[in-house]
């Protein structure tokens, strides 16, 4: 199916159920690969299972190359660059407002609720879950409670940054964390509900959506902080696939194999190509 392709961009989710075959087919055709997965478990699977095959084929594979979870990976890299030496901890926190979801996103949320999650702790992946920890993060609009979630940053950030601890969060009330213990029970119910409602958000709702991603890094060499803001996560995802494919075709990737976004591309340069959907808030 991919014969003659130079880059494959996959939107075939839920990815843990459907997404592995397109990655394998792309590698077999020696085509670079990007996808829009929001499933941390799938990102981990691709890194662990297909890295050697991608490297041997001389292609670059970058999963989770959409709103999930490029902004967090770029922000983490930008924050870490402000510190000399090893980084002790990086926290990444997302805040979204007025964001309507597509049917595919709702199916993914249901799938993720039943999947095993991990965090990066003391230099290794450890089991975690939705709501395992809560923190306070300073957003441009004030300090807010954030709840640990399924972001891929615990997998991607240690690939490009020497860091001991990485966790990913979403702005939500602390009480939401208690629901994480019921994830495997709630997931199937959410999967049934996901079939109802609109197939995707309206153009107006996409124009009204806003997001902020904050990364805070700390270590013996000081502290770093990066803030990315933007609008329309679906528009950002589409633009990311275009910019990523263009960069891969032109040979801009920093190596072959399965890479993280900020490992494959310079973080600041990539962010600069994503306006008006995303910008670095200096």
| Spatial order of strands in the largest sheet | 7-8-9-4-10-11-13
Query: How far do the termini sit from each other?
Result: 44 Å
CATH T-level fold name of the largest domain: Dihydrodipicolinate Reductase, domain 2
CATH class of the largest domain: Alpha Beta
Helical residue percent band: 25-40%
Contiguous helical run count: 11
- Class by alpha and beta content: alpha/beta
CATH superfamily of the largest domain: Dihydrodipicolinate Reductase, domain 2
The helix/strand series, from N terminus to C terminus, equals: EHHEHEHEHEEEEHEHHEEHEHHE
Uncertain regions: pLDDT < 50 for 5+ in a row? none
The share of residues in extended strands comes to: 25-35%
Would you write up a description of this structure?
This protein is of the alpha/beta class. 37% of the residues lie in helices and 28% in strands. The strands form 3 sheets. It has a 7-stranded mixed sheet. A 4-stranded parallel sheet has the order 1-2-3-12, with helices on both faces. α2 packs parallel to α3, α4 (70-80) runs parallel beside α6 and α5 packs antiparallel against α7 (183-193). It is globular, with a radius of gyration of 18 Å. It starts with 6 loop residues before the first strand and ends with a strand. The mean pLDDT is 90.
């Amino acid at each position: 199916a991919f014969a003659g392709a130079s880059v494959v961009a996959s939107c075939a989710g839920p990815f843990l159920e459907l997404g592995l075959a397109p990655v394998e087919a792309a590698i077999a055709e020696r085509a670079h690969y990007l996808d829009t997965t929001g499933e941390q478990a799938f990102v981990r699977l691709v890194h662990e299972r297909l890295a050697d095959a991608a490297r041997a084929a001389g292609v670059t594979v970058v999963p989770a190359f959409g709103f999930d979870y490029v902004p967090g990976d770029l922000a983490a890299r930008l924050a870490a660059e402000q510190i000399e030496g090893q980084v002790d901890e990086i926290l990444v926190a997302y805040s979204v407002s007025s964001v309507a979801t597509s049917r595919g996103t709702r199916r993914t949320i249901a799938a993720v609720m039943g999947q095993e999650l991990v965090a990066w702790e003391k230099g290794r992946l450890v089991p975690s879950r939705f709501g395992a920890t809560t923190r306070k993060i300073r957003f441009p609009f004030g300090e807010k409670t954030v709840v640990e979630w399924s972001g891929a940053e615990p997998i991607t950030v240690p690939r490009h940054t020497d860091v001991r601890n990485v966790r990913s969060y979403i702005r939500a009330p602390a009480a939401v964390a208690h629901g994480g213990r019921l994830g495997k029970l709630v997931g199937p119910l959410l999967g049934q509900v996901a079939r109802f409602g609109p197939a995707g958000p309206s153009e107006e709702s996409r124009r009204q959506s806003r997001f902020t991603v904050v990364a805070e890094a700390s270590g013996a060499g000081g502290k770093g902080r990066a803030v990315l803001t933007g609008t329309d996560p679906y528009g950002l995802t589409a633009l990311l696939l275009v910019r990523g494919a263009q960069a891969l075709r032109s040979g801009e990737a920093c190596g072959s194999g399965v890479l993280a976004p900020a490992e494959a591309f310079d973080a600041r340069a990539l962010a600069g190509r994503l306006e008006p959907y995303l910008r670095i808030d200096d």
